[in-house]
Write a structure and sequence with these properties.
Strand order of the largest sheet of chain B: 3-4-8-6-7
Bound molecules: flavin-adenine dinucleotide
Number of domains of chain B: 3
Structural class of chain A: alpha+beta
Largest sheet of chain B: 5 strands, antiparallel
Shape of chain A: globular
CATH class of the largest domain in chain B: Alpha Beta
Radius of gyration of chain B: 21 Å
Structural class of chain B: alpha+beta
Distance between the termini of chain B: 28 Å
CATH architecture of the largest domain in chain B: 2-Layer Sandwich
Strand content of chain A: 15-25%
Strand order of the largest sheet of chain A: 15-12-14-13-18-20-16
Strand content of chain B: 15-25%
Largest sheet of chain A: 7 strands, antiparallel
CATH topology of the largest domain in chain A: Uridine Diphospho-n-acetylenolpyruvylglucosamine Reductase, domain 3
Number of strands of chain B: 18
CATH architecture of the largest domain in chain A: 2-Layer Sandwich
Oligomer: heterodimer
Radius of gyration of chain A: 22 Å
Number of helices of chain A: 17
């Protein structure tokens, strides 16, 4: 297809200034949270209405032009990486909260609405939107839906998919569909469940109806410090084994603690190699009763120190340290890879030990911050991209960690998605028949393979991506990124 | 023709490959969903728990395993599927529960079947045994086909094995009957209660009643004080534990449905409740008015019900009775047929020509 024709047709759809073509303007869209990959798109379209998005997708369908929907570009797996010769549909301006219905407890939002803004809009009604990725102050609901994003409170509340009631979307064919609705139940197959987590391969979500839940009346947030990471892991098993269902259970290891201290001046008990955060939530009577059961379980788990948040401010401080950990690690190392894998919860200790051994062997430091209650690991592999071969070694280690997760019966991703980063690993989890079935499903939604091609499913699809690695100037040590 | 009765996953694959067209049945507890022509594939013999590690809070079982068996197994370890699976005594199977998407009153608090399924091994229309989803509580790799199978009524594949996550079972429960003079007031209470601090496990209106049945669950010492406050807010009383248990069990088994009546599951919103009630014989309203199980006379009454449902954009699924499986509004999507064909290109599980596939076939 002729690029010139495509650009002219695009320019006819949107007013000047909302189709970006200049390299300087495109630069901001060349990469997402997985900065090792980079690709310049043909153009970036910035729609402001749903009708404009529909028109753009229909134009792409007509011209056979690949497109990538983009929210805030915080994907850690290269999900919103542009496609060579294709366009980016940037959805940040579709950021209206269309309705908050406190009585039926839902919010109807456009895809560019930032996750935390939904909770802010629901707060006056004593409600909130439960999924809380650490990136919640920037990432969008559209991105969350595409990746079925999770957060610290998945253990009790589930992931994005458990909170999406309805989706209006324009499919890659140009068909506009309404999946689900205002009820928490549907008759017939769970289309919303299928769309959620489809990584932008079906089309573009235009409107999403989210379930809101009452803010818990009481929280009981405990931070327990341990001498070893393994002890912290065992404490998790003990808490779950006691029949408690905390809202969240998170672990940070020594390196992650060091980072949080540097970044947000978090304070942790001295002498501990790992910290476990356990948060109970619910009606005050229930939390009081559960608290009485949690106390002895934690005391018996051999902690160095236990701190209980005495008020909302202390609770927020604990969570601030935890949620800032990813970015904070940036202070410890010029570059890092955030990995995301899942192991059966009872094999957490073993998994962490293996990661420690592997990291020692290749001489790369690994910080661990993770959703312990779900067995969802987030090893952060630190490296210096200016060092020859360092990125490759880091990627090799990341790959070994993923293989370990699969071998343990877990998953290559708990919440960050497959994207470009892990498409080579998907065949380790699924056989050829399963992958073929997924391709067939994808083709049902997108016969032309135009919507976010090359993501999740490797090869067999039209335009492929190039692994650009580091920017040449970065490689030369002229610029760095954080 | 005799039913095919595989006892293993390999046998299931062979059975599917051996016929051109088939329909699947599990425990025959929702006969309204059993229809279509072709060979009968009975999954009642494909049973047994494959994996259960209580410390992992997940289990994997063959799809013909009775849900009651699983519930008993979980119960022994203080665990449960928190959505109150239905029709346990009647013999419903895990596969039937998934295919029908039928959850019980407990779905209010933590979600329903769709929120607890993690993985499935299923045979697609090409006769391939596929392992979709995963076995760990969190997994974002690949399309979430197991969720899609919930409510898919066997049209997209035959479930052979399913993996679920489970939760610790609350140590105690207490059911409160909150008095409402009429259905509108009852719905008002449901909505308020669902937003309250009490984190109710179930909020239902029982058939034949206009009262709200509110179930608290948690540590025993917490429930008394909460119940007192609930009853000071809405007039009512605390039900005797034994009586409440019997009543919930009766609901679970559809014991309230009178002979000769059809039963359907109708997802709805609070605004639909009063109108729905006008068009049915009886109704069990679940989950703070998000879904109703309704009973109605077949024939003309069903016709009027469906006509009204269409005006409201409501769509339901028949659980018991004759006639089309779908009730009310249809929501035709081009992609629907494309996805069905992706998973079942040969139309093994019913396709075009299937009376239930027509979108607007009036009775
Ligand atoms: C510091 C940091 C912390 C993070 N913490 C977490 C965490 O705790 N949990 C977690 O799950 N993730 C986390 N993430 C990952 C990331 O924030 C999530 O994946 C998020 O959902 C991406 O949202 P976004 O708006 O940035 O989407 P983008 O990165 O712009 O896009 C992500 C994907 O969604 C697709 N997409 C976007 N909008 C639409 C739409 N409207 N319709 C269809 N497809 C669409 C894109 O094509 C792409 O494939 C973190 C990331 C960072 C940088």
């Amino acid at each position: 297809m002729n690029d010139g024709v495509a650009v002219r047709r695009l320019a006819a759809l949107l007013p000047p200034g909302r189709v970006l073509r200049e390299p300087a303007h495109l630069a901001a869209y060349e990469s997402d949270g997985l900065t090792a990959y980079r690709q310049r798109p043909l153009a970036v379209a910035i729609p402001e209405t749903q009708a404009e998005v529909v028109a753009l997708v229909r134009l792409c369908a007509e011209l056979g032009l690949p497109f990538v929907a983009r929210g805030s570009g915080t994907s850690l797996s290269g999900g919103s990486l542009p496609v060579a010769g294709g366009i980016v549909i940037a959805l940040n301006r579709l950021n209206r909260i269309l309705e908050v219905n406190p009585v039926e407890r839902w919010a109807l939002v456009e895809p560019g609405v930032v996750n935390a803004h939904v909770t802010a809009a629901a707060a006056p009604h004593g409600l909130h939107y439960a999924p809380d990725p650490s990136s919640q102050t920037i990432c969008t609901i559209g991105g969350n839906v595409a990746f079925n994003s999770g957060g610290a409170h998945c253990l009790k509340h589930g992931m994005t998919a458990n909170h999406v009631l309805g989706i209006k979307a324009v499919l890659a064919t140009g068909e506009v569909v309404e999946l689900g609705g205002a009820s928490r139940e549907v008759a017939g197959p769970d289309w919303c469940g299928l769309f959620t987590g489809s990584e932008g391969l079906f089309g573009v979500a235009l409107e999403i109806r989210l379930q809101l839940v009452p803010v818990a009346e009481r929280f009981h947030t405990v931070l327990a410090g341990y001498r070893t990471l393994e002890q912290a892991g065992e404490a998790v098993a003990a808490v779950i084994g006691a029949g408690l269902l905390p809202g969240a259970m998170e672990i940070m290891d020594a390196l992650a603690l060091e980072a949080a201290v540097a970044a947000v001046h978090a304070e942790y008990p001295p002498g501990c190699e790992a910290v476990l955060i356990v948060e109970l939530e619910g009606p005050r009577e229930v939390v009081e009763a559960d608290r009485a059961r949690l106390g002895p379980v934690l005391a018996a788990s051999g902690p160095v120190a236990i701190r209980v948040a005495r008020d909302a401010a202390e609770r927020m401080a604990i969570w601030k340290g935890r949620k800032s950990a990813f970015s904070a690690v940036g202070r410890l190392s010029p570059d890092f890879i955030v990995q995301d894998g899942v192991v059966p919860r009872q094999r957490l200790g073993e998994a962490l030990r293996c990661i420690g051994e592997m990291s020692g062997k290749v001489g790369l430091r690994v910080a661990n911050v993770f959703h312990a209650g779900d067995g969802n690991l987030h090893p952060l592999i630190l490296f210096d991209g200016r060092e020859a071969g360092a990125l490759e070694r880091a990627e090799a280690l990341a790959g070994r960690i993923l293989r370990m997760c699969v071998e343990m019966g877990g998953s290559i991703t708990g919440e960050h998605g497959v994207g470009v980063e892990k498409r080579e690993y998907l065949p380790e989890m699924f056989g050829p028949d399963e992958l073929d079935a997924m391709r067939r499903i994808r083709a049902a939604f997108d016969p032309g393979g135009l919507s976010n091609p090359g993501k999740m499913l490797a090869r067999g699809e039209a335009p492929s991506l190039q692994h650009a690695g580091l920017h040449p100037l970065e490689r030369a040590g002229v610029i760095t990124r954080e | 023709m005799n039913a095919l009765k595989p006892t293993t996953l390999a046998g299931l694959v062979e059975a599917v490959r051996g016929v051109e067209r088939l329909r699947v049945e599990g425990g025959r507890t929702k006969p309204g969903l059993l229809r279509g022509d072709g060979a009968v594939l009975s999954l009642g013999f494909l049973r047994g728990v494959v994996e259960y590690d209580p410390g992992e809070f997940t289990f994997t079982a063959l799809s013909g395993t009775p849900v009651a068996e699983v519930a008993a197994m979980l119960g022994e370890r203080g665990q449960h599927l928190p959505f109150d699976p239905m029709l346990l005594d009647a013999g419903s199977t895990l596969g039937g529960m998934v295919a029908s998407g039928l959850s019980g009153p407990g779905r209010l608090r933590h979600g329903g079947v769709r929120d607890f399924i993690l993985g499935a091994r299923m045979v697609d229309g090409l006769g391939r045994l596929l392992r979709m989803g995963g076995k760990v509580v969190k997994n974002a790799a690949g399309f979430d086909v197991p969720k899609f199978m919930v409510g898919s009524h066997g049209r997209h594949g035959v479930l052979g094995e399913v993996t679920f996550k489970v939760f610790p079972r609350p140590a105690a429960r207490m059911t409160l009957r909150l008095r409402a003079p009429g259905i509108r007031e009852a719905v008002g209470i449901l909505l308020e209660a669902a937003r309250s601090r009490f984190d109710f496990e179930a909020l239902d209106v029982w058939p034949g009643s206009r009262d709200v049945m509110a179930r608290l669950a948690g540590p025993p010492e917490a429930l008394g004080p909460m119940a007192i406050e609930v009853l000071s807010r809405w007039p009512g009383e605390c039900m005797d534990g034994g009586e409440a248990g019997t009543r919930w069990a009766g609901l679970r088994e559809l014991g309230w449905v009178r002979g000769g009546m059809s039963v359907a599951r109708v997802p709805c919103t609070p605004g639909h409740v009063a109108g729905l009630l006008d068009h049915v014989a009886d109704m069990h309203l679940m989950s703070a008015a998000n879904v109703a199980l309704v009973s109605f006379e077949p024939g003309a009454v069903r016709g009027r019900l469906e006509k009204w449902m269409k005006t409201q954009g409501l769509r339901g699924m028949l659980l018991r009775g004759d006639g089309r499986m779908w009730l009310g509004a249809s929501c035709p999507m081009g992609v629907e047929e494309a996805v069905r064909r992706a998973l079942d290109p040969l139309g093994r599980f019913g396709g075009p020509g299937d009376p239930d596939e027509g979108h607007d076939g009036n009775e």
